[in-house]
Design goal:
Length: 84
């Protein structure tokens, strides 16, 4: 299966309280091949390019292994969001 489309995705992570928390989440996603990872610990928003089309539930489980709670927004909301 060939896929040249980059998937822009978003997760919400509860439990981050500082820049170090955000950096840990960012590094975890980058190790899994995500690009342009942006983590905002104050709002809990995590945005990234999923170039490998890795399932969101796998990424969420990986972040939860760090001790955070992850919420996956519904797909319809992600499609409507144009300003990534």
């Amino acid at each position: 299966m060939e896929s040249n489309q980059t998937q822009l995705q978003e997760l919400f992570v509860d439990g981050m309280s500082c820049a170090n928390c955000a950096m840990g989440v960012k590094k975890r996603l980058e190790k899994q091949g995500m690009q342009l990872v942006d983590v905002n610990f104050a709002t809990g928003e995590v945005r990234f390019e999923n170039v490998s089309a890795k399932p969101l539930n796998e990424l969420a489980e990986s972040i939860e292994d760090l001790g955070y709670t992850v919420k996956i927004p519904n797909v319809a909301a992600q499609i409507q969001k144009k300003n990534f």
